[in-house]
Write a structure and sequence with these properties.
Shape: elongated
Largest sheet: 2 strands, antiparallel
Helix content: 55-70%
Strand content: 15-25%
Strand order of the largest sheet: 1-2
Length: 78
Amino acid sequence: MRLTTVILIASLMQVSAATFGQRVTLNQRNASLETVLKEIRKQSGYDFYYDGKVLSSIKSVDISVKNVTVEQALNTAL
């Protein structure tokens, strides 16, 4: 009975943490796209794979989003 309760509580906590980790708030000016992607990764937990050569050719970006989904943050940054 105790083991079942512990497993149930742990499962509920994991689901709750995953839900809150998918919203992003950013406010950066003249930041590199790599910096923006790292911040989105830090806030959301998603990993991004990209070619560093491509990112270095992109000029700096301005982004200001508050409590948006990862998809919306990426669309704004790109």
